[in-house]
């Protein structure tokens, strides 16, 4: 696994990445299958259940890692650059699939 | 080469570059969409992409209604910068990129958007990657990039900055494809018999 911005965050990052990967690898295939075979309401139930499970399993290590990496971002003077990039293009929702412009893809 | 193409066939379908229009690359991975998307999180570190040295998740959410996973990351890169760029803009070998990805299992679409944080006051490079299934065993990879100098500069200088960024994009795109192919092969084809006389 890749390193963190700050060496002191690397163990937390790796623990968090491992937790996410395990969860994600269990989540993805059933999520695809559910979306194909099950009515809308039930798929949402699956997503809801798995989102809760992710929080339960990885929430604690995420909180620790996040605190560490936020400090690393500040220490490297990246906070303002990130804020500016977020203002220009928040990307809170998936971009339209037509490709092309990277700007104002929020709908 | 036969070993190479057997284990992951890909072809370059399209590569276009005209003034100020997005660069676009389209290729195929001989892996199911789900394998490619799981592989995304295992791409670095990568001997083909040694310029990416750090990867950090700074935000992530799982939408409990749609099942879409949004991830925001910061990538730290070290890459030699031409002397004339450093003289002109300052900066150093360390460059940072903001990357936002969406994985949507329902539509089987994954999009990754990246933009440079470093030197962003001078030029921006928006890159977008999309992975979509073309069959149960093949995934299409589309990469576009828009590169633009931001400040009013002499035309020749703008052209020079843009062409340097275009070159870097092309180089990194090539390395990125090779690196990711290796990752996918290692992850999903561990039993591949070593038949190729050319494989080292």
From TrEMBL, chain A:
It holds the Pfam family UPF0203. Keywords: Disulfide bond. Residues 80-107 are annotated as: Disordered. One of its GO terms (molecular function) is phosphatidic acid transfer activity. The keyword Thylakoid does not apply. It comes from the Eukaryota. Belongs to the TRIAP1/MDM35 family. This is Mitochondrial distribution/morphology family 35/apoptosis. It comes from Boletus reticuloceps.
Automatic annotation (TrEMBL), chain B:
InterPro entries: PRELI/MSF1_dom, Slowmo/Ups. It holds the Pfam family PRELI. GO terms for cellular component: mitochondrial intermembrane space. Residues 16-192 form the PRELI/MSF1 domain. This is MSF1-domain-containing protein. It comes from Boletus reticuloceps. The lineage of its organism: Eukaryota, Fungi, Dikarya, Basidiomycota, Agaricomycotina.
């Amino acid at each position: 696994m890749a390193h963190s911005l700050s060496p002191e965050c690397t163990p937390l990052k790796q623990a968090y990445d491992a937790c996410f990967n395990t969860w994600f690898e269990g989540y993805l295939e059933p999520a695809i299958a559910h979306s194909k075979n099950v009515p809308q309401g039930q798929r949402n139930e699956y997503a809801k259940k798995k989102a809760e499970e992710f929080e339960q399993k990885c929430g604690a290590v995420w909180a620790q890692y996040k605190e560490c990496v936020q400090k690393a971002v500040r220490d490297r003077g990246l906070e303002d650059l990130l804020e500016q990039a977020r203002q220009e293009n928040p990307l809170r929702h998936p971009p339209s699939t037509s490709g092309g412009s990277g700007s104002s893809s929020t709908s | 080469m036969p070993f190479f193409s057997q284990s992951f066939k890909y072809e370059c379908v399209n590569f276009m570059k005209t003034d100020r229009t997005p660069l676009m690359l389209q290729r195929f991975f001989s892996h199911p969409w789900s394998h490619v998307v799981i592989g995304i999180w295992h791409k670095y570190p990568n001997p083909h992409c040694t310029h990416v040295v750090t990867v950090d998740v700074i935000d992530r959410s799982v939408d409990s209604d749609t099942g879409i996973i949004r991830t925001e990351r910061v990538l730290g890169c070290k890459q030699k910068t031409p002397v004339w760029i450093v003289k002109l803009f300052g900066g150093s070998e360390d460059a940072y990129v903001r990357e936002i990805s969406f994985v949507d299992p329902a539509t089987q679409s994954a999009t990754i958007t990246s933009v440079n944080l470093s030197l962003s006051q001078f030029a921006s490079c928006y890159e977008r990657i999309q992975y979509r299934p073309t069959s149960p065993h093949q995934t299409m990879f589309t990469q576009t990039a828009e590169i633009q100098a931001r400040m009013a500069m002499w035309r020749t200088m703008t052209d020079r900055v843009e062409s340097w960024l275009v070159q870097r994009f092309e180089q990194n795109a090539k390395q990125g494809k090779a690196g990711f192919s290796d990752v996918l092969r290692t992850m999903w084809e561990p039993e591949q018999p070593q038949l190729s006389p050319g494989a080292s």
